[in-house]
Amino acid sequence: MAFASKIITCLLILTIYIAAPTESHITCGTVTSTMTQCISYLTNGGPLPSSCCVAVKSLNQMAQTTPDRRQVCECLKSAGKEIKGLNIDLVAALPTTCGVSLSYPIGFNTNCDSISIAV
């Protein structure tokens, strides 16, 4: 009996560690405040401020789980729709321009639910 309870306990602990988080801990407020450094560049072009790339890299570091990446995607799409004059080409190229590699495209048509991080 004691052996069976130890096995069940081990299985429960293992399940907790293996189970992927299903909820993001990043808010849209955090996403938009982080990315404000890039708005002028993404609307007007010109030289890319180093603070914008710092923001892109910071956001990439914050979003390390699938739910976090999906949340960031949804927040960026929502915020982007509110900003008049965004240059879609600059938006799409921003991660690469800042040296951040993503396995999915950036844009208003991105299906955020399809974003996942292989473990």
Automatic annotation (TrEMBL):
Keyword annotations for this protein, in alphabetical order, are: Lipid-binding, Signal, Transport
Query: What's an example Gene Ontology biological process for this entry?
Result: lipid transport
State the Gene Ontology terms under molecular function.
lipid binding
Q: Does the keyword Ligase apply?
A: no
What's the short name of a Pfam family annotated to this entry?
A: Tryp_alpha_amyl
Function comment? Plant non-specific lipid-transfer proteins transfer phospholipids as well as galactolipids across membranes. May play a role in wax or cutin deposition in the cell walls of expanding epidermal cells and certain secretory tissues.
Q: Which family does it belong to?
A: Belongs to the plant LTP family.
Name of this chain's protein:
Non-specific lipid-transfer protein
